Amino acid sequence: MKQFINILLVALMALSSVVQAEKISLERIYSDPSLSGKTPRNLTVSPDGQRATYIQSRADDYNRYDLWEYNVQSGKRSMLVDSAALMSGEENLSDEEKARRERLRIYGKGILQYTWSADGKALMFPLAGDVYYYQLSTKKAVKLTNSEGFATDVKFSPKGNYISYVLDQNLYIIDIKSGKTKALTTLGGGNIKFAMAEFVAQEEIDRMTGYWWSGDESKIALTKVDMSPVEVVTRNEIYADSIKLVDQRYPFAGTPNVNIELGIMDVNGKTDDIRWIDMGADKDIYLARGHWLPNNKTFSYQWQNRTQQLLELRFVNAKTLEQQVVIQEKSDTWVNIHDSLKYLDDSFIWGSERDGFHHLYQFDYKGKLIAQLTKGDWVVDALKAVNKKTGDIFFTGRKDTPLESHVYKVNLNKPNQITRVSKRDGYHRVSFSKDASIYLDSYSNIMQPTQVSLHKANGQHITWMEENKVDKDHPFYSYKSDFIKPRFGTLKAEDGQTLYYRIFEPVGFEGKRPVINFVYGGPGSQQITNSWSGRNALFQHLTQKGYVVFTLDNRGSANRGKKFEDPIYKHLGDVELKDQLTGIEYVKTLDFVDPERIGIYGHSYGGYMTIMGMFKAPDVYKVGVSGSPVTDWGLYDTHYTERFAGHPGNNNEDYDISNVFQYADGLSGDLLIYHGMADDNVLFTNSTKLFKHLQDLGKTFDVMTYPGSKHSIRGKKTGLHLAKTIVRYFDKNL
Questions:
Q1: Is the pLDDT reported for residue 591 higher than 90?
Q2: pLDDT tens readout for residues 14-49
Q3: Is there a contact between 428 and 406 (Cβ–Cβ < 8 Å)?
Q4: What is 558-595 written as a DSSP string?
Q5: Residue 455 main-chain phi, psi, to 5 deg
Q6: Distance between CA 133 and CA 141 in Å, rounded?
Q7: Which stretches make up the Peptidase S9 prolyl oligopeptidase catalytic domain (predicted)?
Q8: pLDDT score, position 405
């Protein structure tokens, strides 16, 4: 009888777990296994199309990644390389690698990056500062380096005969057959860096490299960066048990950038024998991109002036160093940098916003326009692949809705006849095979964690790489039925443009509910999409506690075209806040909302927006949580700040009205500011300067600092503490 009762109790408990979903706690959000389930990253199809590889976190430690493969022929998945078998301890990262990973937003341990050889027979990956070479035939990883330094920016040469890397500010190559290492440069050190991307190139321009192989492996184009013009900032990186003084060359808005040179050298030539390209008399410029043309005789680079209102695509004859400007893009505000460039045999594809939206164009090699391939009041996200045999061009874009990214194709011979390839509504991030015959699709929607599948180029589903189905074995399963699906909607800005919003509305609560306005607001970002986000778990926790969580993409946000972006030019913190307040005016009309209990929360640019909201609209926002905020745009870097605010030497008044200080007297609500104490992006000085200003005004506020944390404030324990701090602050004050 007792045994029967025990069995009955177990059955009833199992039934109750299905009938009534669990509330999601902050502890659960930051524990293993991840609620997102299995989330493969760095998806790549091998050059021969026979394998799809990816890195995947472990079930018992979602911060450690191993290398996995899916074999197309056998249909089997297996771990290709166990990172723990190579190195089980902690990585001792160099300062350069820490900064590089912060710029790449790479977090975790184990195998985080890898590259296929051109023939698809080998893989290469950097781990703990060394370079590992993995041959499929032997199924063994061989360590090619054993240096005291830390190798970064590791690459296969195009034909797979060499591996190249940067070490101690110089460029090296390894001949894979002989195992011999050769230093291509030796003069790097101190303020001089060869083949490396400078700070603003990494953080703002999305150029993470400073060297480019020619396709025939005979030449390398590379940069030489002189850091000496950039102001030295002595930062205190405050850790739990120590303080580290860091001299960082940080290019504040309005101050000098690095001096950058671009050269070409023969791989088999003498060390340090570099022929330098004349980039013009104006040295105060940005090098945005570099590519070799298919003929291996011409190198192309994208040159941008300091105001960022002019972008040129230039071709350089690698033998004579003669140049021609092939494309010019101009703007009265700024020109966005992109990666929509693909060289074909007799023409090339180029992305441009010349009609107000990012679209694809075909040019001949003299720069003559052949055709505009895509057109309309929507944007192309990225050029993904070209099938040279059929002329089909594959790209991701927002033709159907700005809230979803889909795969489309257009043919070179049939401009503007666009076909949608991806089938399911939601967000698609894709990676095509070299011949554009198949692609990997990393798909999600607002209620479905990321699923990875393999498709033919016409969109036909071949197989699941990781179905990540939310069944009873999925970590999200016991919470899904209680998750509140957000509602999407639109409002009108003061100039008539459409603003998209998302709102999580609590269920089962009586009375008027408080509101948290989650905000980012800055350019280059979009918050309102039909996609899965780990951040939504925090929003669910807040909604289940009875909060309304509202988010709106104001003018200036990404993926809506230049007309939508341009209103913020030289008006930072003004137009964005007006649009957020338009959203809040709508929220106040909802019968379940308490208009007297509205809070605001954001990180980085969102932290800046939070402070602006608390200072400029104290009658609206009663509580604010500001994370790692910019407070003085003169303390942020050149390329980002001057793109949107201009040069402070030309318009100090515009900077004054965009900074938070002159509005600080308006603070009347409860404000919490948190910041990582080792932040090298938005320097901690932004917060300390505001602390002193508010103290001088006699304004009370709250502070939480995170020793050792960079801008993103990563780590399970730190993340949990931050989430608890945020929620507790709103619980107490809102």
A1: yes
A2: 333 333 457 899 999 999 888 999 878 888 999 988
A3: yes
A4: SSS-HHHHGGGTT-TTTHHHHHHHHHHHHHHTSTTEEE
A5: -135, 155
A6: 5
A7: 539-734
A8: 98
Token pair, residue 119, equals 């023939």
Are the beta carbons of 493 and 565 closer than 8 angstroms? no
Tokens of 241: 């048990």
What letter represents residue 145's amino acid? T
Q: Read off the amino acid at residue 179.
A: G
Kindly report the number of other CB atoms within 10 A of residue 697's CB atom. Answer: 11
Q: What is the spatial distance between Cα 427 and Cα 53, in angstroms, rounded to a whole number?
A: 21
Distance from chain centroid for Cα 660: 26
Cβ–Cβ under 8 Å, residues 109 and 714: no
- Buried/exposed 42-76: b ≥16 CB within 10 Å, e otherwise: bbbbbbeebbbbbbbbbeeebebbbbbbbebeeee
In terms of C-beta density within 10 A (0-12 exposed, 13-18 middle, 19 or more buried), how is residue 189 classed?
exposed
Active site residues: 604, 679, 711
3-state helix, strand, coil in the chain (%, to 5): 20, 35, 45
Orientation of helix 716-733 relative to helix 536-544, angle to 10°: 30
439 Cβ contact list (under 8 Å, min separation 6): 45, 384, 385, 394, 407, 430, 431, 432, 433, 454, 455, 457
Q: What DSSP designation does 186 have? A: -
Rg, Å, the chain Cα set: 26
Strand partners, 393: 386, 410
**Cβ-based neighbour number of residue 708 at 10 Å:** 17
DSSP calls for 496-562: S-EEEEEEE---S--S-EEEEEE----TT-----SS--TTHHHHHHHHHTT-EEEEEE-TT-SSS-H
| Secondary structure of 67-104 as H, E, C letters | EEEEECCCCCEEEEECHHHHCCCCCCCCHHHHHHHHHH
Cβ atoms of 431 and 6 within 8 Å: the answer is no
The tokens describing 422, both together, are: 């991806």
Tell me whether residue 539 is exposed, middle or buried, using C-beta atoms within 10 angstroms of its C-beta: 0 to 12, 13 to 18, 19 or more: buried
The pTM is what?
0.92
Structure tokens at 284: 């105060």
DSSP characters for 633-683?
A: GGGSBHHHHHHHH--TTT-HHHHHHHSSGGGGGG--SEEEEEEETT-TTTT
Strand order in the sheet with 310-317: 285-292, 298-305, 310-317, 323-330
Question: Does the pLDDT at position 339 exceed 50?
Answer: yes
First to last CA, the chain: 53
Residue 356 per-residue DSSP state = S
Question: And the tokens for 446?
Answer: 């607002």
Strand, coil or helix: 37: coil
* Whole-number Å distance between alpha carbons of 210 and 289: 9
Average pLDDT over residues 704-717: 92
Q: How far is CA 302 from the centre of its chain?
A: 21
